[in-house]
Specification:
Oligomer: single chain
Distance between the termini: 51 Å
Strand order of the largest sheet: 2-1-4-3
Shape: elongated
Low-confidence stretches: 1-5
Number of strands: 4
Largest sheet: 4 strands, antiparallel
Radius of gyration: 26 Å
Structural class: alpha+beta
Helix content: 55-70%
Number of domains: 2
Order of helices and strands: HHHHHHEHHHEHEEH
Length: 246
């Protein structure tokens, strides 16, 4: 038996179909909160007389097209059509992004450095190798053998790691920030004196045998400044939303 559906035939039907889809997929609350965030930002921007200039809008548009490789007018038009975005919508998207960025700078640019120094440890990172085992006795035996020089961490990794790519890298995870690590692992890693293989750490994922190659202390460069700025802004926005919810 074939099941047929009646597709929406006009704009109003499509709008209703989209609303129905959002409701049925559990996205309505997310959309409502997104709309509330936009309203809070716009009201705060209006209160603080923050608006993007025409030059800023043009630069933002040029950057957007470059990042998305929209090198011709036709490519831009096709992208807009594929995403159901009008020229007016596109300009409003750019305007909203600029307002958000300018408001964040207006509210928090002068707080970034102080926040960084008060919380610099949160932005530390470590270069790590890891082997995850299931048997703590085996993990301890391997730890002592590596510590005494009887075994090499990379050789052990290639023997015990089953993931092909991670095995090929000898357990190399790269440089991870403190907040990316499990709290128990973070505490052990940042207490190490690199280069050092630390005693096995147990989490719900298994027994972690970790070699700490380097502790990377954070530097307040432009990238980190922008990250902290947006973290402060997101915290402020969450507080504003919480106030509206009450």
């Amino acid at each position: 038996m074939l099941i047929t559906t009646n597709e929406p035939t006009d704009r109003a039907d499509w709008h209703q179909a989209i609303v129905d889809e959002a409701r049925m997929s559990g996205k309505v609350s997310e959309l409502i909160r997104s709309a509330a965030r936009r309203q809070i930002i716009n009201e705060a921007a209006l209160k603080n007389a923050i608006q993007p200039t025409e030059i800023e809008l043009q630069v933002a548009a040029d950057n957007f097209r470059r990042v998305n490789q929209l090198t011709t007018i036709a490519a831009t038009s096709n992208w807009l059509a594929a995403n159901f975005i009008s020229i007016e919508d596109f300009e409003q998207i750019l305007r909203d992004r600029l307002i958000t960025a300018k408001l964040a700078h207006h509210l928090f640019a002068d707080r970034v450095e102080q926040y960084f120094w008060q919380n610099s440890h949160e932005y530390s990172a470590a270069t790590l190798y890891e082997i995850v085992l299931t048997d703590r006795y085996v993990a301890m035996e391997l730890f002592y053998a590596i510590a005494e020089g009887d075994l090499n961490f990379t050789d052990v990794a290639q023997q015990y790691i089953t993931d092909p790519e991670l095995n090929r890298r000898g357990g190399y995870l790269g440089t991870l920030k403190r907040r990316q690590l499990h709290p128990a692992i973070s505490a052990a890693v940042f207490a190490a004196t690199p280069p050092q293989t630390i005693a096995p750490v147990t989490t719900d994922l298994g027994i972690h045998l970790i070699r700490v190659v380097e502790i990377v202390e954070p530097q307040l460069d432009e990238t980190l400044s922008e990250q902290i700025l947006m973290e402060l802004f997101d915290l402020w926005l969450a507080q504003q939303l919480a106030g509206e919810d009450r």
